[in-house]
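Curious: why these numbers?
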Amino acid sequence: MPAYNSIFTEEKYYTLCGMPVMNFFQNKPPTMDSSLLKNANLKELELDIIDEALIYFRANVLFKNFPIKSDADKLLIYISVFISKCLEVAYSYSNEYEKAKIYIKNLIEDCEWTPNLKSHFLNNLLNVQNSEVNELQNFLKSIRKETVSRLIYILYDSESKTLDLKYWLGYARKKFLGYDFPTTRIR
């Protein structure tokens, strides 16, 4: 069974250092109703790349290979690695919900990419253009912020938080493609 690649392949996106700059909804609860997803084509739903990463994360994290078929897959990889880091922090503080939320929100700043950090996995996916670095950093920060918002909603603010928390934290020790954020400091 192949990994789940992005469905956002048909459009050409503006890119920064080879990373597509894709529109996404802000302040939106995630679309995670599995019955809705089983009966519909994902392209027909009002999804964005963050929803797609959240939907596919638990399946994709199990694969050792992920072929990049479009520029959107690069962003899907980035968001999936970030989700993995968030789950690692949530698992570390699984009995302290409020503390976990604070530390997950801190990842927005702690997981900043910089081309000077040679060990960062994102350097393998990008063609760094110095003139585009600041704009890309701002875009990735906005992606991290919205991802954190939706993931906290899934883990802690949804109606069935214990069920969701259990089935999400089971993936806390899985690294998507073995990637990790080297700049992250877990407190």
